[in-house]
């Protein structure tokens, strides 16, 4: 990274990003690739007793949190709304009611300050956020995106315009598997951070299955993932233990489960790098906060001559800075704004970096 890459210049655009696709209300502000504010309000504790995100609760919480979070971001960045050059917002994928709070807020804001509006893909934003920490993403790069709703291997030729899907999960997302297995182990929601924490004291003595890694599966699904078989294997193992009257070694089960997920994620991501002749691997999304995933990707990546780029954990989980980062990349690459006329798309495909304009 050169000195210029990390320095803020007032000639670079000031972009505000809004994220409301799931249970985090995020407002981030960047100038170019420099992060100025990252305000996040989470409704996660309101969902905990239901064991998963309840869409209506999330939407209501976004409504309540939007104005104070916007205010906090402006205060943290030391800017007024009138200073903003462009507004970016998550247009999808995500919970439609939750997305609507963000997109309506962004439309109102962009209209009020008369500035361009970019409706962007949440998944691409998880990749773009890394530019705030590590400078421009070498293109092409391979990105492994692992969150509560998605597991994707991507070839990123241009973060603002050109993302190709190499593979995806055939069933559960990686984060979903963490959350479901945590429940089986009696750990609270969201389960990923809990499993990460308890696994630190565990020993890997159980060998759980690695989905889609057999020779036959690899022929057809080399870069795809499957976690439902693993989840069932863990549930059966725990059930058998409980039936036998012996205590369940929660830390050991968590460590063995985590290893099975992380082993497959890292191997397939590095295989994709080798296949595409790419020497940079970016890992993003909530599960990229996992300490074992970070450590294993770093060590196996080093051995394979692949440079790893992973944002700090706080930028891996949902936030507004990632949306601002992608919006800023679009502005600097001269991508046309979406404008005010667009629809939030709950199943926006990963390859569509920007939402279609209806204007
Ligand atoms: O990206 P994210 O914040 O929201 C979505 O877009 O889904 O990801 C949330 C997911 C949850 O499933 C959560 O359990 C998981 O990321 N997660 C983790 C860790 N921190 C968050 N999974 C494993 N280890 C972690 N440390
Ligand atoms: Zn996410």
Short recap of the structure:
The chain has 359 residues and is of the alpha/beta class. It contains 14 helices and ten strands.
List keywords for this structure.
alpha/beta, Nucleotidyltransferase, domain 5, five-stranded mixed sheet, globular, binds 5'-O-[(R)-(carboxyoxy)(hydroxy)phosphoryl]adenosine, binds zinc ion
Percent of residues in β-strands: 15-25%
Gyration radius, to the nearest Å? Answer: 20 Å
- Give the termini separation: 39 Å
The CATH architecture of the largest domain would be 2-Layer Sandwich
How are the elements arranged and paired?
Layout: H1 3-6, E1 14-19, E2 24-31, E3 34-42, H2 44-47, H3 55-77, E4 86-92, H4 96-113, E5 117-121, H5 122-128, H6 130-134, E6 141-146, E7 151-158, E8 162-168, H7 174-184, H8 191-199, H9 215-221, H10 228-244, H11 250-276, E9 280-284, H12 291-304, E10 307-309, H13 313-316, H14 321-332
Helix pairs in contact: 3-4, 5-14, 7-8, 7-10, 7-11, 8-11, 10-11, 11-12
Bound molecules: 5'-O-[(R)-(carboxyoxy)(hydroxy)phosphoryl]adenosine and zinc ion.
Protein model, in words:
By secondary structure, the chain is an alpha/beta fold. It has two domains: 3-129 and 319-332, Nucleotidyltransferase, domain 5; 137-312, ATPase, nucleotide binding domain (Nucleotidyltransferase, domain 5). 45% of the residues lie in helices and 18% in strands. It is built from 14 helices and ten strands. Strands 3-2-1-4-5 form a five-stranded mixed beta sheet, sandwiched between helices. The protein has a five-stranded mixed beta sheet with strand order 8-7-6-9-10, with helices on both faces. A hairpin with a 4-residue loop joins strand 6 (141-146) and strand 7 (151-158). Helix 7 packs across helix 8 and helix 8 (191-199) crosses helix 11. It binds 5'-O-[(R)-(carboxyoxy)(hydroxy)phosphoryl]adenosine and zinc ion.
